Amino acid sequence: MIIFATLVVLVVLPGTDGSTEQLEFPTFMQKVEEGTVKQVTVKGQQIRGELKSGEAFVTTGPVFNEAVYNQLVEHGITPSFEEAPDSGLWFSAGMALFAIVVVVALFAWFMRSIQGSNGRAMSFGKSRARLQTDGGKLITFEDVAGIDESKEELQEIIDFLRDPRKFTRLGGRIPKGVLLMGPPGTGKTLLARAVAGEAGVPFFSISGSDFVEMFVGVGASRVRDLFEQG
């Protein structure tokens, strides 16, 4: 934006160097009447010239018309003319280019926002379960103290996970799940990790609250995704 504004200023506004005196248009006409102007060059609305004293000047006035021309000629000044660049065309082209850049930038931002929203919507029904690796250490029943009865009841689950065909040949099916009950901190998660470690299968950990959402069907979708991961 700053670069564009700078270009517009350079194109639209007339440039002058430090050695050229800036004159108001009425002051310029007064000097013409006084006979102190030596020569004049007209370039659009910009008038450059030289005084008889040798000083260069520049002024910007209204459109150079016949009345101004006649007044110069009356005082012995024959102006020369230079073709002025079409600054309006450059300005219009610059504005059009700037508008195109803005539209493209807004379109890119809009498409990125849509893609981000679609990504969040697609992942909304995904399971938040995390695969526990235990830092390479395998947790088994030896890491769980006590609760021998629970270990015995879970042994059949471990045997099924190790060799399911031994049970399926006899018509057995894997249980829907195992419900471990107890207050927080009594080792339920540790026991579940030990079952996975004894059976040599991956262990996914997820909190029950991760299945609860305000939208209907999200919890069921996460359960299905969890079983697909497993």
Radius of gyration, taken over Cα atoms and rounded to an integer in Å: 44 Å
- From the 3D structure, determine the CATH topology of the largest domain: Rossmann fold
Strand order of the largest sheet: 1-4-3-2-5
CATH class categorisation of the largest domain: Alpha Beta
Major pleated sheet? 5 strands, mixed
Low-confidence stretches: 8-16
Name the CATH superfamily assignment of the largest domain: P-loop containing nucleotide triphosphate hydrolases
Estimated share of beta-strand residues: 5-15%
**Category from helices, strands and their pairing:** alpha/beta
What structural keywords apply?
2 domains; rod-shaped; two-stranded antiparallel sheet; alpha/beta; 230 residues; Signal recognition particle alu RNA binding heterodimer, srp9/1; Rossmann fold; 5-stranded mixed sheet
What's the layout of helices and strands?
Blueprint: H1 2-12, E1 21-23, H2 25-34, E2 37-43, E3 46-51, E4 56-60, H3 66-74, E5 80-81, H4 87-124, E6 130-132, H5 148-162, H6 164-168, H7 188-199, E7 203-205, H8 218-229
Parallel strand pairs: 1-4, 2-5
Antiparallel strand pairs: 2-3, 3-4, 6-7
How would you portray this structure in words?
- The structure is a single chain.
- About 50% of the residues lie in helices and about 15% in strands.
- About 5% of the residues have low confidence.
- The chain starts with a helix and ends with a helix.
- A hairpin with a 4-residue loop joins strand 3 and strand 4.
- The radius of gyration is 44 Å and the shape is rod-shaped.
- It folds into 2 domains: about 80 residues, 2-Layer Sandwich (Signal recognition particle alu RNA binding heterodimer, srp9/1); about 100 residues, P-loop containing nucleotide triphosphate hydrolases (Rossmann fold), CATH 3.40.50.300.
- The chain is built from 8 helices and 7 strands; from the N terminus they run H-E-H-E-E-E-H-E-H-E-H-H-H-E-H.
- The relative contact order is 0.09.
- With about 230 residues, the chain is an alpha/beta fold.
- Strands 1-4-3-2-5 form a 5-stranded mixed β-sheet, covered by helices on one side. Strands 6-7 form a two-stranded antiparallel ribbon.
